[in-house]
Amino acid sequence: MGRQFHFSLITFAVNFYLLMKKYNFYSGPSILPKEVFEQSSKAVLELDNIGLSLIEISHRSKEFMDILEEAKSLVKELLGIGDEYQVLFLQGGASMQFCMIPFNLLGEGETAAYLETGVWSKKAIKEAKMFGNVDIVASSADKNFSHIPKQYTIPSTAKYFHITTNNTIYGSQLQKMPESPVPMIGDMSSDIFSRRFDASKFDMIYAGAQKNMGPSGVTLVVLKESLLGKVKRQIPTMLDYNTHIKNGSLFNTPCTFAIYVSMLTMRWLKSKGGVAAIEKINEEKAQKLYAEIDRNSLFEGVVAKEDRSRMNITWVAKKPESEEAFAKFAKDNGCIGIKGHRSAGGFRASLYNAMPVEGVNKLIEVMQEFEKKNG
Ligand SMILES: *Cc1c(COP(=O)(O)O)cnc(C)c1O
Q1: What's the gap in Å between 47 CA and the centre of ligand 1?
Q2: pTM of the entire predicted model
């Protein structure tokens, strides 16, 4: 027996592992590379042999300052930007930026331009209206945000133009960044570091880390200082970008853990060949899954083909009554987190940088099996 028994045991173990392996399609907080989990859990016990845990050291210690510096320089490298931009790590999520932006940049009686492409841009618009006038240059709200409007004019008198580059909930994405006659601001929470783009077109980019950059608790803000100092109102210290620029993101205690894990994730991305390399893989993953959605007789996509997101892939069941059944079937087969957002329904698979091609293959397999059983 010996050997044969051994082999069948190994085969059994491998099959069992593959069967039980879970793939994380949650939209955020979301998947991160396994290597990052390993390194960060080690650092929680002890950071780089310093005898202390990462989460107990001062944010002003040399060790943490080095981490912060490396994080900043990785952001610049991965975005392809230089010292004309400030890199900040703030708290309050991307949602806090919805209010900090107009607080700092939009004076009373002045106008800001917004492109309305989903729930997140709607929320950004709501906050801006508290500070000045909002010109919604175009909106796809009447079509349930199923496409990206392309014909619009940005008034040259606007203080800035705000876009959401990827609509996490509806699964649409700006394939081409617009040309703006005024400073352009991008909410890139769910597609930062996922594809190449010309960052110099933007005066400001921001992103909650928990989609494609790290864990929740920190928000990346990249901005040109030339944007600031133009409104007359008083700005509370913590909400003033200048405070955080002057203090190098250390005015108050930053989220040290989230910054560290984000830094490790950026290091990981760099080691994989950076944004250009991951873009190719992201493209391949998304095309594969969309091809299955279009082929499968039980499902259909909801977003205009030319505006489909490569990060958050959305679709619905042609027969709404099979929605629950597929959600359960996918979960039972190791595909976790594919239920669509409560305001959009249907399904959503988030294919962030850390999702391996195998995860997409698995989901496709599960969709095909479901079709065989229910088609
Ligand atoms: C998740 C998300 C937000 C909100 O982020 P928080 O960090 O939870 O405030 C804003 N914009 C986009 C595009 C998002 O995906």
Answers
A1: 30
A2: 0.95
